[in-house]
């Protein structure tokens, strides 16, 4: 029995020492301490020994068991440490490697142009107003003195939305509808600009898009004259394009102003010489005029007491002119090589 015990101790120590993983140590533990292990058999045999031998053998068995348990605990601690070390090595961060750079983005040229326009007007004391992109015919047409037989009101020119029971709803064709909403919501004086998206049935070309952006401007107060309009537009054109760019104000018709005018700027491509993009050297930038008395009346303002001016400036056109972009369609192509020139890294 003593021989079996010595043998169990020796083999048990060897088995535990041979375990190279924690799972392997579990198996070794069963082999050494399990019910069928030699150590357990010796322990079970103690009962059949003569009484005087029992205590001696019992002590030896306990001693052997303690030795084996210590060996198992030591092995477990070692294997746990080793597996922890392996994890740390696998997770090691090499601080000497260069980091992965995030591409820094940039604002789209349209946003840059809009921000700049809005900034200029905020400095002049205007506030920013907003209106919905889905408009009704009254705000988009009637209130603006655009009669029912005007060509802009046909399905051919405007984009109507298909909402059952609402044949009067369309995508706004100009930001001028915000003039109406603003005057309806407050008494004079009014000094607002309203930047936003507008929609027209239009075939895209180098200077036209079917979805584009305008900044509407509206000023109404006592004693506002055409000179105020001209002075404001001059100041804005200089702030946007510098002193050197030439501008030209000519007569134009819009049903909601009287008199009406249009401001054009020398073409960004040919500098006014004339080219296939502009034709005659000029790019039309905005429509403007003195607010028609009928429009003031439609909004509940007294046209005998108040006068005002309004303008509608194309933001996409401003971007073309400022950044010398040769074709407006580049703004919506999403070509990263184009956008990268405004700061987006490749
Ligand atoms: C209007 O939209 C008037 N509501 C402007 C106005 C406001 C007049 C207040 C009087 C008083 P027009 O259709 O010309 O006008 O457009 C105004 C500007 O938007 C143009 O000068 C041009 O800069 C820009 N624009 C017009 N059509 C397009 C288009 N298809 N693509 C890009 N820009 C356009």
Q: Strand arrangement, largest sheet?
A: 1-4-5-9-8-7-6
**What ligands does this structure carry?**
adenosine-5'-[phenylalaninyl-phosphate]
Through-space gap between termini: 81 Å
Question: Uncertain regions: pLDDT < 50 for 5+ in a row?
Answer: none
Percent helix, as a range, is 40-55%
Please count the beta strands (DSSP E, at least 2 residues each): 9
Tertiary shape:
rod-shaped
SS field, number of helical segments: 12
The average pLDDT value, as a whole number, equals: 92
One letter per element, helices H and strands E, the order comes to HHHHHEEHEHEEHEEEHEHHH
> How much of the residues is beta strand, in percent?
15-25%
Q: What does the radius of gyration come to? A: 43 Å
Structural class: alpha+beta
Q: What's the story with the biggest beta sheet?
A: 7 strands, mixed
Question: How would you sum up this structure, described in words?
Answer:
With 346 residues, this protein is of the alpha+beta class. Helices cover 42% and strands 18% of the residues. It has helices at residues 2-18, 22-33, 38-45, 51-90, 109-123, 137-140, 177-185, 226-241, 293-298, 315-323, 330-333, 336-339, and strands at 127-128, 134-136, 169-171, 190-199, 211-221, 247-251, 257-266, 282-291, 307-314. The strands form two sheets. Strands 1-4-5-9-8-7-6 form a seven-stranded mixed sheet, with helices on both faces. Strands 2-3 form a two-stranded antiparallel sheet. A hairpin with a 5-residue loop joins strand 6 (247-251) and strand 7 (257-266). The protein is rod-shaped, with a radius of gyration of 43 Å. 31% of the residues are buried. The site of adenosine-5'-[phenylalaninyl-phosphate] (FA5) has 23 residues, from strand 5, strand 7, strand 8, strand 9 and helix 10. The site of adenosine-5'-[phenylalaninyl-phosphate] has 23 residues, from strand 5, strand 7, strand 8, strand 9 and helix 10.
């Amino acid at each position: 029995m003593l021989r079996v015990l010595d043998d169990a101790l020796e083999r048990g120590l060897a088995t535990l020492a041979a375990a190279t993983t924690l799972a392997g140590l579990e198996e070794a533990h069963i082999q050494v301490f399990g019910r069928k292990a030699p150590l357990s058999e010796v322990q079970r045999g103690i009962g059949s020994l003569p009484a005087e031998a029992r205590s001696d053998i019992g002590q030896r068995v306990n001693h052997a068991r303690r030795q084996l348990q210590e060996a198992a605990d030591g092995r477990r601690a070692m294997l746990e440490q080793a597996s922890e070390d392996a994890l740390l090595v696998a997770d090691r961060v090499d601080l000497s490697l260069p980091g992965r750079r995030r591409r820094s983005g940039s604002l789209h040229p349209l946003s840059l142009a809009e921000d700049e326009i809005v900034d200029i007007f905020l400095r002049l004391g205007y506030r920013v107003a907003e209106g919905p992109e889905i408009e009704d015919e009254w705000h988009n047409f009637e209130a603006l003195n655009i009669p029912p037989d005007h060509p802009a009101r046909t399905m051919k020119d405007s984009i109507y939305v298909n909402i059952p029971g609402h044949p009067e709803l369309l995508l706004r064709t100009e930001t001028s509808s915000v003039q109406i909403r603003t005057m309806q919501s407050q008494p004079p004086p009014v000094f607002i600009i309203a930047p936003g998206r507008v929609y027209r049935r239009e075939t895209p070309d180098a200077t036209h898009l079917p979805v584009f952006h305008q900044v509407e401007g509206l000023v109404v107060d006592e004693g506002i004259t055409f000179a105020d309009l001209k002075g404001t537009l001059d100041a804005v054109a200089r702030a946007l394009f510098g002193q050197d760019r030439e501008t030209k104000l000519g007569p134009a018709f819009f049903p909601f102003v009287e008199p009406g005018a249009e401001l054009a700027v020398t073409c960004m491509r040919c500098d006014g010489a004339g080219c296939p993009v502009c034709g005659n050297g000029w790019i039309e930038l905005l429509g403007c005029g003195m607010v028609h008395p009928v429009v003031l009346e439609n909004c509940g303002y007294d046209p005998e007491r108040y006068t005002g001016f309004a303008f509608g400036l194309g933001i996409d056109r401003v971007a073309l002119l400022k950044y010398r972009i040769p074709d407006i369609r580049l703004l919506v192509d999403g070509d990263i090589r184009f956008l990268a020139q405004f700061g987006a890294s490749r």
